[in-house]
Amino acid sequence: MKATLAPSSLTFTSLPYSSSFHSSSSSLLFRCPSSSASMTTTTRGNVAVAAAATSTEALRKGIAEFYNETSGLWEEIWGDHMHHGFYDPDSSVQLSDSGHREAQIRMIEESLRFSGVTTDEEEEKKIKKIVDVGCGIGGSSRYLASKFGAESIGITLSPVQAKRANDLAAAQSLAHKVSFQVADALEQPFEDGKFDLVWSMESGEHMPDKAKFVNELVRVVAPGGRIIIVTWCHRNLSEGEKALQPWEQNLLDRICKTFYLPAWCSTDDYVHLLQSHSLQDIKCADWSENVAPFWPAVIRTALTWKGLVSLLRSGMKSIKGALTMPLMIEGYKKGVIKFGIITCRKPL
User: Which residues form a coiled coil (predicted)?
Assistant: First the structure.
């Protein structure tokens, strides 16, 4: 989970930490669970626009501060890959195992495999330029750049993350291939069709406007290029369901307050958004079982002497994050939280 976000589109007004995201054939709305009335700028006028801008700016600031404070702790304990690991279902990885970081690398490799991205492409189809949308401290960017011999640019809201990522690139003699900058995921500072691979590993959950997020991914990917989104989602709604159950929404709201998340959405929502752009080879999968050992492992690490000392030294946001981890486990066990991958290709 990494820092990246931009001001929400004026199409939507979100109520941070208390809304769920729904798709329909005609529109995508943020909806407050305590009211059946959708909140759109067309009905709320300038007041709603101003409120949306204010709440989004507060969310951006919160995300940046959260990762400014917590990224050092994460790197110290878990290394430079700030995302889930990919495990065999029902595997039990013990605290002393080195399997956690290997599982994080496996997450990258499995994402590429699922998306059909390989190093064996013909020259004109090779991956030459990559953008890592929500790059953290650059673990995925450096790995992908090395794997494909490609140029990679990472973007994040956190100045601390961007600096650390650039420092690590220099230390690993990759500064000529990899660079990092502070930028908004929803207003990316790149020309259209620049990248052969658009990579978003656990950053979509921070986006207050999922439609604009997808629009930007589609805009910057080159014709024939691939988009890979790996993200936290809520479960797909059943036919006839209009919203999550109140207890499910309450669980997500409690997580949102700690991790600075706006409205959640489902993998179905992402698929519908990608379909609206007439993209090809759209695929998705639920990898919840494959990441199940991750949060228990993080908790066990936090409860070691080194983990506790580092946690206390890191600050209150890190402590609150640690206390919220059991809610993530509960969400996965009860099927409310899903870990999804969604991928597609832009037509030539």
Answer: none
CA distance 113 to 291: 17
Per-residue pLDDT tens for 66-78? 889 888 887 887 7
Element of type H or E holding 333: helix 316-333
Residue with tokens 């990898």: 287
CB 153 within 8 Å of CB 132: yes
> Tens of pLDDT along 116-154?
999 988 777 899 999 999 999 999 999 999 999 999 999
**Alpha carbons 38 and 35: distance in angstroms, whole number:** 8
From start to end of the chain, where are the E strands?
20-23, 28-31, 129-133, 151-156, 178-182, 195-201, 221-234, 280-286, 337-345
Q: 230 by DSSP, 3-state: which?
A: strand
